[in-house]
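re: that chain from earlier
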Amino acid sequence: MSMATTTCLVTGGVDTHSNTHYAVAVDHVGRLLGTSEFRADEAGYRQLLAWLHSFGQLTTVGVEGTGA
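^ sequence. v structure.
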């Protein structure tokens, strides 16, 4: 007997600030998967993207820009 595997569909949201960005990940029905804060630099952007991908298949990311 084999177990079926399912891929979690992930939506990310990012609230940007001058020095850090705060991110949230939710699944396809809106359940919270996690929250985290990342530096607002190249290394932080790579970490944020890797973090979002760690939850499953990333489908969408919404970003609220600084000053919005």
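The helical segments are 42-53.
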